[in-house]
Design brief:
single chain; 10 helices; globular
Length: 248
């Protein structure tokens, strides 16, 4: 696939492509109470805000779960600071929903969610990583590398809240690497796509997780019926309500 086609495929979901098809799909139209109010925190990818994962959260409500955004603002800051803030949100939402919850993270949000799951296994009953390059967090295409360099440049100029050198070369990077290599004490799912135009799909195959391949673009995972169909039975088991009856 040419670079132009890859870019077009990744931009299309951002502009709304695919949402009409999702809402016509049985995985969207079939409502359920299987979630039984189990909490879910959904973490957006690099550069994204909670609004970018709103469709996934609405679908979770339709399945009976109690989803929340991550509350991180834009996902562009220092990894250690984002992990601290996400841990606080997870603790608050677990308290509000009465017990351990499910963490779902897209791209960088997936490996940040993994770090929180390792740190606070008492709060997490299951982890889903969507196109998350946990084996090599900087395994990204050229356009993302340009964005990373831009954020590092802003940080050097004194702009606060940006990705900084410590995240790429210092103690923060070392702590991140250790957390991403640590065993996971809860069930986990790593979703990847060979058609991913943003991150390297091989880097998404966490050896501590179940692997599932989908055909989505990177940006389209949050609205992909195939992905939602994959999630249905696994989330149901984690919620304690057995396998789903939704056909794949």
């Amino acid at each position: 696939m040419t670079t132009v086609r890859v870019i077009a495929r990744e931009v299309a979901p951002v502009l709304g492509a695919g949402r009409r098809e999702l809402r016509r799909h049985p995985v969207w139209t079939a409502e359920s109470t299987e979630g039984a109010g189990v909490g879910v925190v959904v973490v957006p990818g690099f550069g994204g805000a909670d609004a970018s994962m709103a469709v996934l959260r609405r679908w979770l409500v339709r399945r009976g779960y109690a989803p929340s955004g991550a509350g991180l603002g834009l996902n562009v800051g220092c990894s250690s600071a984002l992990v601290d803030r996400l841990e606080q949100r997870v603790a608050e939402h677990a308290g509000a929903t009465g017990g351990p919850l499910v963490l779902i993270g897209h791209s960088r949000g997936g490996w940040i969610a993994r770090l929180v799951a390792v740190r606070r296994p008492d709060l997490v009953r299951g982890l889903v990583m969507l196109g998350a390059p946990v084996l090599a967090p900087l395994d990204a295409r050229a356009v993302v590398q340009v964005a990373i360099r831009g954020l590092l440049g802003l940080s050097r100029l004194g702009v606060r809240g940006m990705l900084d050198e410590d995240c790429v070369h210092g103690e923060c990077r070392e702590a991140t690497a250790a957390g991403l290599a640590a065993p996971l004490p809860m069930p986990a799912l790593a979703v990847y796509s060979r058609a991913d135009g943003v991150v390297g799909w091989r880097s998404c195959r966490d050896p501590q997780a179940e692997w599932v391949e989908v055909r989505s673009s990177h940006t389209g995972m949050g609205i992909d019926p195939e992905l939602f169909t994959v999630l249905v039975p696994r989330l149901a088991v984690w919620a304690g309500h057995g396998p789903s009856t939704v056909a794949s």
